[in-house]
């Protein structure tokens, strides 16, 4: 374009070129030319030869040349024609910068004679440079609060051209905020200022793009632009804004610590720290500050303490949001606590009657209690029952009051107290329950009589005891308590009213120890029984009785007594033995009795002394004296024997009996010979007669009883076979109905068995004792005979067995007599 614009210029410049021709004589002559810049290389400037007034040929001849004064030659001389050309394109801005006018100097030097001419070429400016901004996109930061009319100087644009071609004016793109004000400096180019016309608002428009244009004065004018970016800086001119006016939250009261209640959010239109919001629970009462906490960054409101619906149902929390610039806003969180069944029912016992008498009737009130549940709206319905199966039951009285009453009868001896667990349960969900324990003790009532440890007691005491000896004790237990269980013992008067037992026995009323008051005599009394009464100490005393039987044990305190032969006469008894008697002839029999019983009365007979020991022998068991051999003529007529009778007691007691035996040829002879008629004839005679009679009576009775027994036996069998009726076992041998045997009976003894026994005992004499025994007068029950049977049966030997049976039966006889 520069070229295109330069071509038409060329003619004009040449046309307007005015030429100075100064011909100076000598050396000094100056030629001045003007030339426009940007001329193409080789452009014609002027004809120097003509201007110097020289002939054309002369230039060649004189060797004209151009000599630069400075460092560079911008022109060229055509010597033949004398034309001056532009050597290369001239740029005024680079040759002279801002200097105006711009003049180039050189000389034309001619030889022969040496001559020089000074040439000045002035280069004219053309508008070939547009104004330009060094920074095409400058950034301007302006706070949004800047007051109107503030000025912001901008960088100036550069235009290399000078004069009118240089920078002339600035223009600004249309905008709402700024206008431009162009200003001059004394030195340097013009510059512009932005003037604020309208308040900046970052929140409305954060930046403004402006275009500034610099214009020069050339024709046509040239311009350059720059884009100004105005960034509006933030100022904290906005308060935070909550997303809602009021936040609402519903929280179950059993929410865990730290549970989220609500999240509040606030925003701020500002920027940077000005929009950084912190949340806080400012200006809240202490209770709320204790219960809630807020995350200052996220705005999460959380629990920091368990809620209790029953205490507080709603909370009104004030929340504050503050931005980095210190501006703050407020909002509210309304928290509604939701009721949850979290309170178990409470049992309040108002009264308990303990101890409770064991004879309390059914439906007796034991305790009164009320039940309360703090969960008002949920789970408020309550059921109440006992955990275990006890003789009590819960009865509702009114509203939430209940009573505990007895449902079954109580027995202190069975269960002395109860721990009653009352369960109160609400209906939830979830079901909650409480257990309350009421301790009820059962107090004693005297409802148990003393009870003896045994149904009956059998005590033994050895005869000849020392008086007041301890013989045993009875003991009774009472299941009751305290006084009601304090047992005292006493002897009960016999029914017959005879108080003789008190003479024999005494009892310690405290401990039931029994003492024999008197010396017992077995031969007098073998056993007796009495009744002990145990009484407790209750208000209404109860008592029980027990039978105590005392069995007297035998002692060997009686010597055997010789019944035959009589030992108290002056003359010993004489027995006659015919000399013709064979060996084994029964001479006589020693009869002895012992007052004791059992072993103590079991007698044995021994030959102690004899005139001739080889002639007689004594049967150990029955005392029969027999000859051992044939009597010889040499044997003296008078034989003296001493017999020892001994019982088997410990120690054994014994008696001796002596008797004389006369060996006679006939029964009359010795009697006549030795009989002393003056003294004892009648007495001996009668004695012998009695003996013979008694022996024959005994033999007769024996035979009779055997016969009777046989007949009875037969009769019984027949009867049994015929009728099957009569309860035979009621009649043992000794209990036959009297009429059956009455006819055969001996007048003095009414029963057949008596005969049997008397004969069976043989030498035993104990039956006599029983016939004449004396008894204490209190009644002896029938059982006493059986006891003795047991005692005797324990005796060891066979011979004893006979005897014991005898005494047993005779006891019955004696009982019958009583
Ligand atoms: C500069 O330009 C503005 C319009 O852009 C004009 O109003 C003003 O007169 C001009 N100044 C000069 C000195 O030309
Ligand atoms: C201003 O100009 C810049 C780039 O020069 C651009 O990114 C921005 O979006 C413009 N802003 C406006 C409001 O036009
Ligand atoms: C609840 O938790 C917070 C911490 O999260 C603790 O500071 C506070 O003591 C807790 N409260 C209870 C009652 O445990
Ligand atoms: C009741 O329970 C208490 C405590 O366990 C105990 O000491 C007491 O003996 C119990 N009472 C009864 C009557 O069981
Ligand atoms: C709660 O009570 C209901 C009815 O009262 C009963 O069916 C349920 O078994 C109970 N749950 C518990 C855990 O006791
Ligand atoms: C001998 O004793 C018996 C009985 O003991 C008696 O009956 C009798 O009279 C006594 N005779 C003499 C002489 O003492």
Automatic annotation (TrEMBL):
Tell me, in one coarse class, where this protein mainly resides: membrane
Q: Which residues form the Cadherin domain?
A: 27-133, 134-242, 243-347, 348-452, 453-562, 577-672
Q: Which PANTHER family match?
A: CADHERIN-87A, PROTOCADHERIN BETA-1
Renumbered to this chain, the signal peptide range is: 1-28
Keyword field contains Glycosyltransferase: no
Question: Which Gene Ontology molecular function entries are recorded, alphabetically?
Answer: calcium ion binding
What this protein is called in its record is: Protocadherin beta-1
Could you name the Gene Ontology cellular component terms for this entry? Answer: plasma membrane
Provide the GO biological process annotations: homophilic cell adhesion via plasma membrane adhesion molecules
Please give the function described in this protein's UniProt entry.
Answer: Potential calcium-dependent cell-adhesion protein. May be involved in the establishment and maintenance of specific neuronal connections in the brain.
**Xref: Pfam families:** Cadherin, Cadherin_2, Cadherin_C_2
User: Which region ranges are annotated with the description Disordered?
Assistant: 782-818
Q: How does it sit in the membrane?
A: Single-pass type I membrane protein
- What PROSITE patterns is this protein classified in? CADHERIN_1 (PS00232), CADHERIN_2 (PS50268)
Residue intervals passing through the bilayer: 690-715
Listed A to Z, the keywords are:
Calcium, Cell adhesion, Cell membrane, Glycoprotein, Membrane, Repeat, Signal, Transmembrane, Transmembrane helix
Record localization: Cell membrane
Q: Which gene name belongs to this protein?
A: PCDHB1
Q: Where is the composition biased (Basic and acidic residues)?
A: 805-818
């Amino acid at each position: 374009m520069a070229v295109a614009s330069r071509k038409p210029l060329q003619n004009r410049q040449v046309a307007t070129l005015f030429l100075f021709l100064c011909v100076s004589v000598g050396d000094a002559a100056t030629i001045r030319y003007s030339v426009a810049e940007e001329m193409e290389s080789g452009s014609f400037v002027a004809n120097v030869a003509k201007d110097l007034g020289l002939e054309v040929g002369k230039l060649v001849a004189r060797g004209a040349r151009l000599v630069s004064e400075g460092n560079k030659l911008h022109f060229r001389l055509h010597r033949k024609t004398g034309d001056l050309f532009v050597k290369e394109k001239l740029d005024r801005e680079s040759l002279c910068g801002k200097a105006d006018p711009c003049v180039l100097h050189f000389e034309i030097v001619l030889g022969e004679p040496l001559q020089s001419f000074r040439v000045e070429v002035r280069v004219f400016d053309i508008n070939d440079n547009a104004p330009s901004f060094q920074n095409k996109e400058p950034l301007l930061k302006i706070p949004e609060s800047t007051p109107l009319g503030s000025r912001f100087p901008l960088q100036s644009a550069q235009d290399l051209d000078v004069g009118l071609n240089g920078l002339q004016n600035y223009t600004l793109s249309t905008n709402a905020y700024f206008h431009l004000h162009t200003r001059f400096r004394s030195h340097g180019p013009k510059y512009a200022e932005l003037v604020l016309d309208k308040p900046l608002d970052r929140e409305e428009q954060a930046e403004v793009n402006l275009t500034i244009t610099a214009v020069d004065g050339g024709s046509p004018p040239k311009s350059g632009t720059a884009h100004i970016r105005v960034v509006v800086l933030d100022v904290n001119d906005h308060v935070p804004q909550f997303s809602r006016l009021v936040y609402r939250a519903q929280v179950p009261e059993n929410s865990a610590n730290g549970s989220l209640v609500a999240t509040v959010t606030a925003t701020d239109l500002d920027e940077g720290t000005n929009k950084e919001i912190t949340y806080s629970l400012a200006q809240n009462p202490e209770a709320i500050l204790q219960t809630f906490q807020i995350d200052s960054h996220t705005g999460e409101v959380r629990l920091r303490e368990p809620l209790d619906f029953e205490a507080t149902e709603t909370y009104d929390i004030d929340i504050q949001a503050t931005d980095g610039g210190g501006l703050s806003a407020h909002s509210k969180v309304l928290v509604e606590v939701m009721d949850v069944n979290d309170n178990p029912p409470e049992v309040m016992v108002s009264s308990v009657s303990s101890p409770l008498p064991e004879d309390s009737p059914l439906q007796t009130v034991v305790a009164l209690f009320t039940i309360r549940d703090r969960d008002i709206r949920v789970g408020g319905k309550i059921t109440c029952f006992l955990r275990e199966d006890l003789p009590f039951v819960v009865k509702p009285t009114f509203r939430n009051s209940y009573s505990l009453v007895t449902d079954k009868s109580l027995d202190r001896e069975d269960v002395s107290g109860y721990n009653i667990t009352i369960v109160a349960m609400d209906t939830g969900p979830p079901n909650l329950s409480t257990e309350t324990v009421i301790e009820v003790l059962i107090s004693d009532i005297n409802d148990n009589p003393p009870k003896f440890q045994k149904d009956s007691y059998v005590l033994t005491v050895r005869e000849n005891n020392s008086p007041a000896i301890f013989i045993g004790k009875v003991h009774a237990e009472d299941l009751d308590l305290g006084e009601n269980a304090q047992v005292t013992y006493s002897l009960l008067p016999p029914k017959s009213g005879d108080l003789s037992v008190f003479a024999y026995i005494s009892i310690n009323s405290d401990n039931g120890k029994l003492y024999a008051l008197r010396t017992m005599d077995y031969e007098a009394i073998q056993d007796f029984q009495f009744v002990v009464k145990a009484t407790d100490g209750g208000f209404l005393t109860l008592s029980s009785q027990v039978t105590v039987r005392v069995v007297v044990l035998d002692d060997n305190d009686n010597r055997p007594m010789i019944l035959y032969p009589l030992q108290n006469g002056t003359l010993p008894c004489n027995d006659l033995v015919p000399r013709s008697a064979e060996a084994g002839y029964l001479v006589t029999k020693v009869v002895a009795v012992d007052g004791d019983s059992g072993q103590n009365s079991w007698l044995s007979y021994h030959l102690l002394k004899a005139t001739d020991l080889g002639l007689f022998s004594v049967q150990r068991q029955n005392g029969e004296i027999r000859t051992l051999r044939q009597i010889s003529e040499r044997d003296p007529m008078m034989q003296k024997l001493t017999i020892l009778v001994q019982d088997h007691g410990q120690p054994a007691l014994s008696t001796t009996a002596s008797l004389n035996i006369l060996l006679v040829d006939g029964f009359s002879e010795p009697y006549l010979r030795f009989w002393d008629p003056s003294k004892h004839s009648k007495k001996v005679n009668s004695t012998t007669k009695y003996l013979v009679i008694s022996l024959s009576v005994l033999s007769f009775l024996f035979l009779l009883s055997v016969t009777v027994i046989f007949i009875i036996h037969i009769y019984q069998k027949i009867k049994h076979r015929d009728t099957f009726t009569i309860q035979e076992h009621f009649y043992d041998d000794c209990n036959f109905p009297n009429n059956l045997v009455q006819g055969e009976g001996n007048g003095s003894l009414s029963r057949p068995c008596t005969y049997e026994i008397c004969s069976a005992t043989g030498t035993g004499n104990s039956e006599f004792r029983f016939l004449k025994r004396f008894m204490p007068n209190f009644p002896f029950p029938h059982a006493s005979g059986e006891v003795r049977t047991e005692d005797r049966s324990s005796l060891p030997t066979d011979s004893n067995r006979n005897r014991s049976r005898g005494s047993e039966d005779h006891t019955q006889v004696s009982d019958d007599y009583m």
